[in-house]
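chain below, 95 aa
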Amino acid sequence: MGSDLEISALAINVTIPQALRWTDSRRGEEFTLTTLNVRLLPDGHVAVKAYGRPVAGGRGAYVSFPVPDRPELANLVTEAAGRAGELWAAHRGLG
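prediction:
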């Protein structure tokens, strides 16, 4: 096996700290964005989308939103990706 293994996805979910959350609208409904989904792309870069809950309450639809170009959010993604790498590197195998 080794380097010829095909890994189809590496993704993490990151809770957005309260101070960094924002709202956005989709299909006439306003959402508070609370979670980032960060994916490692084959070229080593990351892609990120935000998900959240309707401001009015309820479950709402599972809808992705773009992440604003804000330095504090970029730092959150970078820190989370690094931390995820540390956790993966220290895994202990199947339970």
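The chain has a mean pLDDT of 92. The radius of gyration is 16 Å.
thats it, cya
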